[in-house]
Amino acid sequence: MTGVLNIFKEKGYTSHDVVAIMRRVAGTKKIGHTGTLDPDATGVLPICIGRATKLAEYLASADKTYIAEVILGLETNTGDISGEILAQKPVEFNRDAIIAAVNSFAFSQRGEYMQIPPMFSAIKIGGKKLYELARKGETVDRPARPVIIHEIKVLSFAPEKNAFTIEVKCSKGTYIRSLAMDIGKELGCGATMGELERTQSGIFIISTAVKLDELKKAGESGQLAEFLMPVDELLPYEKILLPEGEVAKAKNGNPLPRSVAPDAKQGDKFWVYDTNGMVGLFVVGGNKLRAEVMF
Prior knowledge:
Blueprint: E1 3-9, H1 15-26, E2 31-33, E3 42-49, H2 56-60, E4 64-72, E5 74-76, E6 85-88, H3 95-103, H4 107-110, E7 113-115, E8 124-125, E9 128-129, H5 130-135, E10 145-147, E11 149-158, E12 163-170, H6 176-187, E13 191-201, E14 204-205, E15 210-211, H7 212-220, H8 231-234, E16 238-241, H9 244-251, E17 256-257, E18 269-274, E19 277-285, E20 288-294
Parallel strand pairs: 1-15, 3-13, 16-18
Antiparallel strand pairs: 1-3, 2-3, 4-12, 4-13, 5-6, 7-10, 8-9, 11-12, 13-14, 17-20, 18-19, 19-20
């Protein structure tokens, strides 16, 4: 069984919980996710099964889209509403100022956004995960990292809660909690993140995401494969059917001659097949096609 499941992660599950559940449902240890979601967050969590785990890094590097609640006047140790309140400040709920502050983080206005990851994150510094240090009450300096906010906008206001909702399309590695805190700094009153939902990860969208209960039932009835998306549909590179004389070479991971894709350009990628199925993903380099991922 090889492919990717578009799972809707509900509240209360960690991304690792979902992987553990799907290992039991699918009956294989070859399972991995393509981008962590916090336990309180919901939304799209693509899960790779079988040989598709070799492509997890490709899928994880895709842009993401989120809908997030930003609560003004609160600062917490986690950057979201689940954390311990560190400070509370008065809020002047000015809608025009909020819109201007939010829009200022867009790539069209700011370019790359240098973001400091939150302490409660899985990033390692000095060989230790930040959240492990944070749970001990420790805080360390974290270098800012460049991320890109492709699009950002305010969707709605909730002045009775000193809150508003934003939609963000961003690059891999963006922390929406850090973004919420930075918006609060921009407004001078501080902020923390409330609700968070990932609505898209690459080509995976929330409207077609499937809940765990439905997948469990499909596993029990032997129908789980019906929910799997084939890898060559997820990464829609051109396909090459190898001539018989090149099959053994390709299966051993050896380079292929450019003659199998004479019009290809440097860096082009191809799904390579023989008559029995997929061999792997190859990339053009120099005068050869070189194996990048073997299946």
